[in-house]
């Protein structure tokens, strides 16, 4: 039986990966920061390790008897004054060191689509620095590069519920975000596959205008859209870099940058954005 260690199991994607591993009867050891976050979820996993991935001492021997490590560790919303280098890079290095020490066969890491060409962004700089370390680690590996998550797109629905959606540029930039459940299947499939990198998006290629239309349709509100010119976005980013810490401008920098470019990956999965918005009507 292949034994898997999953780090980041209580996050949006990590939760779906944990469920998928359980469905496929993989022996699963979860590394979680707070075991109480799993209470009430109704899942029974083989083992738990309560640890701080940013603190190497808490991870000691975490990979003993493990065949494959899957890491979704990364900052999605800044907290605890930790930086991207602290988490997206160093915390994953801590896991990688343990994996090498225990002779783990494969390390699967979830990065971001086009991260290798967006290293000027703080989040991508940290992620790609780890990717380089993983590639040169001597371990078998797979880098998963997903497009945006449905959980990120929920902000469009929240705006539509309030009556107005703000779009960047002319709203024609395209993306195919993916549901966590669909992405989890790709991540678990990678255990047995031989690809070193997998780019993956959802089944629908949508413009920002399309996303706004879906959001207003589900909310039931009249469509009202305000377009923010790109020159204003560029000025905002420059000012934020100068006057705020990375904990503040990092997530905004990433969102504003990728929203001003096409982010299209190979189609995968079956969940649609409309279904996701409908399932979160009361958010």
TrEMBL record:
One of its GO terms (molecular function) is protein-containing complex binding. Pfam families: NAD_binding_10. InterPro entries: ComplexI_NDUFA9_subunit, NAD(P)-bd_dom, NAD(P)-bd_dom_sf. Gene3D superfamilies: NAD(P)-binding Rossmann-like Domain (3.40.50.720). It comes from the Bacteria. Residues 8-193 form the NAD(P)-binding domain. PANTHER family: NADH DEHYDROGENASE [UBIQUINONE] 1 ALPHA SUBCOMPLEX SUBUNIT 9, MITOCHONDRIAL (PTHR12126:SF11), NADH-UBIQUINONE OXIDOREDUCTASE 39 KDA SUBUNIT-RELATED (PTHR12126). This is NAD(P)-binding domain-containing protein. It comes from Pelosinus fermentans JBW45. The lineage of its organism: Bacteria, Bacillati, Bacillota, Negativicutes, Selenomonadales.
């Amino acid at each position: 039986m292949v034994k898997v260690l999953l780090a980041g199991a209580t996050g949006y994607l990590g939760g779906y990966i944990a469920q998928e591993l359980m469905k496929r009867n993989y022996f699963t050891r979860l590394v979680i920061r707070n075991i109480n976050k799993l209470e009430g979820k109704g899942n029974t996993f083989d083992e738990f390790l309560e640890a701080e991935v940013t603190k190497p001492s808490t991870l000691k021997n975490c990979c003993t008897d493990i065949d494959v490590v899957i890491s979704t560790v990364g900052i999605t919303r800044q907290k605890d004054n930790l930086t991207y280098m602290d988490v997206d890079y160093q915390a994953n290095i801590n896991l990688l060191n343990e994996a090498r020490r225990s002779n783990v066969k494969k390390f699967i890491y979830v990065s971001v689509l086009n991260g290798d060409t967006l290293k000027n962004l703080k989040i991508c700089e940290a992620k790609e620095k780890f990717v380089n370390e993983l590639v040169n680690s001597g371990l078998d590996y797979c880098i998963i590069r997903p497009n945006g998550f449905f959980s990120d797109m929920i902000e469009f629905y929240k705006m539509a519920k309030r009556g107005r959606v703000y779009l960047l540029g002319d709203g024609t930039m395209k993306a195919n975000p993916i549901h966590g459940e669909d992405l989890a299947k790709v991540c678990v499939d990678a255990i047995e596959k031989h690809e070193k990198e997998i780019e993956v998006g959802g089944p629908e290629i949508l413009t920002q205008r399309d996303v706004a239309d879906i959001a207003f349709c589900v909310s039931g509100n009249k469509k009202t859209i305000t377009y923010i010119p790109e020159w204003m976005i560029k000025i905002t980013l420059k000012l934020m870099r100068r006057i705020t810490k990375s904990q503040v401008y990092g997530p905004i920098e990433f969102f504003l940058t990728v929203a001003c470019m096409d982010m299209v990956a190979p189609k995968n999965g079956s969940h649609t954005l409309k279904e996701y918005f409908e399932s979160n009507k009361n958010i």
